[in-house]
Amino acid sequence: MRFDRLDLNLLVALDALLSERSVSLAADRICLSQSATSSALGRLREYFADDLLVQKGRQMVLTARAEGLVDPVRAVLEQIRTTIAVPPPFDPATSDRTIRIMASDYMTEVLLAGAMTDLQRQAPGMRFEIQSLTEVLLESLERGAIDLLVTIDYAISADHPSQILFEDDYVVVGWNGNPAMAEPMTKDRYFDMGHVTARFGRARVSAFEDWFVRRQKRQRRIEIVTHSFLSMAGLVIGSNRIATMHRRLATRMAEYLPLTLREVPMDIPPIREAIQWHISSNNDPAIRWVVERIVAGAQTPAGAEGSVVSFEEARISREELAAQFLSDATPKARG
Fold it and tell me: Which of 138, 161, 173, 207 has the highest CB neighbour count under 10 A?
C-alpha cells in the first residue's frame, strides 16, 4: 500500500529504526531479517532524501530530519492501532501475549515471583520476560522496549500512568553465628562493623551512601560490594559482617537461611515501590489486567489466605536455594 509514493508498510520499520537506532535491534523488534531491515532503511533514505541514521563511532545516531520524524511516526502508528486495528477482546485464559517487565531482583523475589504463579494459573498461554533495571529505565519504557516498569516511586515518570504497590523499610541482617546479632543493634556497633552492600550501574551507586553522608556524617565500612540485593544474604553468612536490607526481602530470606534481623539504629526514610506503564497502553486490556493482578499480589500479606503464593508452595525451591548458599559458607566466621 502506497500513500504519496510512500510504502506505508515502511512506517513500522521506520518507527523501529528511529527508536532502536540500530538495524539489528530494529530487525529483532519487528521480526525481520537484518538484510530486509537494511533494505527498508535504504528505501526510507531514498524517499526522505536523507540518511536518517548515520554512523558515529560505534553507534548510529539520528539526523535532524530523523529526529523530527520520531513523534509524528509514533503518533500515526498509535492512531492506527487504537482506531483502526481493533484488537479482539482480551481473554486471559486464551491470550498468548508476551509482557516485558523491568524490575530489580528485590522486587522479583518479594512480589513478581508470587505474581507469576498467580498469572500462570489464570493465563497459562501468556509469557513474561523480566529484565533487570538499567540506567536508562525510563528510556526503555518510552521507546517500547518494556511494557511495565517496577521501581521506586521517585524514579518513575510523571508523563505516564503509575500505581503505588507497597511501602517498605530497612533492617540490619547478619549471620545467626555473628555475636553482634545476639543483642539489639546500636548506632556505634553498626558503624564499627564491616558491611556488605549492593551497587548498580556504571557509576556503582549504592542506595544508602548518599543518605549516610548527608544525614549521619559517617561512612559505613564497606567490605564487600555485590551486584544484587539477593546475594547480600549469602555474603554475610559465616562472617561477622552485616547488611542493610529491605525488610520484606530480609524477612523472606530469614525463613530459609541462618539469618538474624535487627532494627536499624537510626531513622531511614521508607521507600515506596510503584508500577508504571506507557500512556499509550492505558487502554490495553492485557496490560491493565496484568497490572491489576500484580497490584492485588502486592496488597495481600504474604502467607495470608488468598495470597498470591504461600511460603509452603515455594518451600522446596527455597530449601534448595538455602542449601546452595550454605554449601559455600564455612563454620568459621569470615572476616
Answer: 173
Q: What are phi and psi of 106, to 5 degrees?
A: -60, -50
> At which residue does the C-alpha cell 513523534 appear?
71
Conformation bin of residue 327: beta by default, left when phi > 0, alpha when psi is -120 to 50: alpha
Cα distance between residue 223 and residue 207, in whole Å:
16
pLDDT in tens, 47-97: 888 998 898 888 888 999 989 988 888 888 877 776 665 666 889 999 999
How many whole angstroms separate alpha carbon 197 and alpha carbon 208? 9
- Please name the residues in contact with 216: beta carbons below 8 A apart, sequence gap of 6 or more: 266
What torsion do the CA atoms of 21, 25, 26, 30 make, to the nearest 10 degrees?
-160
Cβ atoms of residues 105 and 226 within 8 Å: no
How far apart are alpha carbons 276 and 157 in whole angstroms? 8
Say if residue 232's pLDDT is above 70: yes
Q: Within a 10 A sphere around the Cβ of 142, how many other Cβ atoms?
A: 16
Tell me the one-letter amino acid at 2.
R
Q: Where are the alpha helices (DSSP H) in 176-307?
A: 187-192, 209-211, 231-236, 247-254, 285-298
d(CA 173, CA 263): 9
- With beta carbons less than 8 A apart as the criterion, state whether 273 and 164 touch: yes
CB hemisphere CA count around 318 (13 angstroms): 16
Closest among 309, 291, 313, 295 to 118, alpha carbons compared:
309
Report pLDDT digits (tens) over 89-133.
889 999 999 999 999 999 999 999 999 999 999 999 999 999 988
The CA distance from 220 to 204, in Å, is 16
Q: Are strands 170-175 and 242-246 parallel, antiparallel or unpaired?
A: antiparallel
Please give the Cα distance from 39 to 43 (Å, whole number). Answer: 6
